[in-house]
Amino acid sequence: QVQLVESGGGSVQPGGSLRLSCAASGSIFSIFTMGWYRQAPGKQRELVARITPPGSTNYVDSLKGRFTISRDNGKNTLYLQMNSLKPEDTAVYYCSAGYSSDPLYWGQGTQVTVSS
Q: Residue 78 gets which letter from DSSP?
């Protein structure tokens, strides 16, 4: 069983930045495709970004240039750098892990609120 624990969420003003982290248990982090998803109130959970074991990334088009996904396989940690945040970025952000693009494991989520 893989456990994923997100951190780094919080409240920020529009235009601000946050860096989310996701710490994974176990020794097989490096073989997982990792992802960040988000779910806003009343909306379905949606993909934010995904990164493969070698480091290839893909993003939702609307977030390209503002969000950056990265991973540190030595620390079993996934990151999401979020810049120029907007109120519509407000959501619970979830970390995911899987052997392909389909998540098998989920974290508990971390709340991000963008408001003035």
A: E
